[in-house]
Amino acid sequence: MMAHSETITLGNGEWDPYQSSTMDGFGYASKIVTEAFKKEGIDVKYNFYPWARALDSASKGKVAGTFLWGYKKEREKHFLYSEPILDVSYVFFYLAERKFDWKKIDDLKDKRIGTTIKYSYGEAFDKARAKGIFEADDSNSDETNFKKLLAGRVDIIPNDLDAGLSILRRNHKDEIKRVSYHEKPVRNTPHYLLISRKHPRAEYLLAAFNKGLAALKKSGRYQEIIKASRNLKE
Questions:
Q1: Which of 100, 163, 165, 204 is the most exposed place for a label (fewest CB within 10 A)?
Q2: What local confidence, expressed as pLDDT, does residue 231 receive?
Q3: Count of domains observed in the chain
Q4: Residues spanned by the domain of 209
Q5: What b/e string do you get for 44-78 counting C-beta neighbours within 10 Å, with b at 16 or more?
Q6: pTM given for the model
Q7: Cα-based distances in Å from 12 to 26, 168, 210, 221
Q8: Residue 231 belongs to what H/E stretch?
Q9: pLDDT by residue (tens digit) across 87-111?
Q10: DSSP letters along 25-93, please?
């Protein structure tokens, strides 16, 4: 029999569509975290902060933890890392009317690719750019890249898959059917829940979350949450 439920508070932030105070279930990553803990009898409340404050509040034990964060070794001093909640995947978006396929970086030869200033799309991509294998067309924002794509000014754009779909739904709803994306990732980065080492039951919370996350995946509910978020027809 499951013990009486307890409630913890986690530091959250704004990263549409993963996390947002204005979205259903606070975004799909928040849904995963909520439901994983719920399977182990733990309810979750969220405090929304600017990202730096979320990390600081968790490191000081003001909240039990925070998410989504990539891995940095120096954070291990203050946090326990969960199993990955999800991979943030960068993929190529393209116009459906212009067929596109790629298997290796050399397949991008002579493509005009919309990129965002100061972004890295992975070591292989960055090296190919430096060698001039393709033409990089820089913009100040991901949104500008999507405008260029829809106008036919670039052939493809690399973008965080989920954030890219969110931009299309929010700003280009009437043209969303014109855009497709290639499932092969340019770059994959695992993101985690960080549990504060200052929490008196840090090890317990970590184990509970990892167990609940595994159960969520086994049941198919995890995949269902992600699929719903990535449905371009919604």
A1: 204
A2: 67
A3: 2
A4: 6-86+188-229
A5: bebbebeeeebbebbbeebbbbbbbbeeeeebeeb
A6: 0.83
A7: 9, 24, 18, 22
A8: none
A9: 999 999 999 999 999 999 999 999 9
A10: GGSHHHHHHHHHHHTTTEEEEEEE--HHHHHHHHHTTSSSEEEEE---GGGGGTEEE-S-SEEEEEEEE
